[in-house]
Amino acid sequence: MTGLGAPNGVQVIARAAQLLRVLEVEPLGLSLTELADRVALPRSTVHRIVAALIAEGFLAAGTLPGQVVIGPVFARMATAATTELWRPVEPYMRLLAEQLGETVDCAVKDGSRVRVIHVIPTTSHTLRAIAETGQTFPLHCSAKGKALLAAHSAEAALDMLPSKLERLTPNTLTDREELARNLSEVRSTGVAYSREESAVGVSCAAIALWSAARVPLAVSVVVPSQRFDLIETKVTEALLAVRRDAGSSLSSVSDAL
User: Fold this and answer.
1) pTM for the whole thing?
2) Whose CB has fewer CB within 10 Å in the chain, the N or C terminal residue?
């Protein structure tokens, strides 16, 4: 790849970033032809940049012949960047866990998915719903993901999603217009819900907060569906209270935008 000192070095970096942003929301990868079409560049140019990014670990070969996906370097960078992000919200997570007796977790956006970075599991119930640290979910069908999507404008939120929305359960929203209406409701109420949209038997409610580092975080309460209907109002009220009372180190997304 051309060095920074060369006249077109900045242009090459900008084009590489453009390719990475396109692939960020396509977890299954794209072919070089598809990439070239998306960024309106010659296929030969895309091929040279992709080859350099693969050599550095920023891209990798996809499962289908000729496709490329985001590479392992980004996973390591993301882990390093988010290791301590959850600490400012942990007191509020523990408050929710004590009030509700349910599992509480914190997550960040990771491409077209949302990644759990900290979990406080419930000790109050034998039947528990728990997401593991490092586990990821599609943005469009998890309460945490929808809370983070709703932190952005309607157009920007839909641009963060892959071209095809994966169906994980019969309740998964795969129609973009229906999802857009759902996100509009989240912006209005401040709370996002997933009622068995990413896993049968698991329901969740979530809010989005800005961390002190200005990174949006999702804080969610994860509940077995058979208990969720009984405590949904209590969960919602507790999340809205945290959203309102987060204090000077955090602010609600609506206040920060």
Assistant:
1) 0.69
2) C
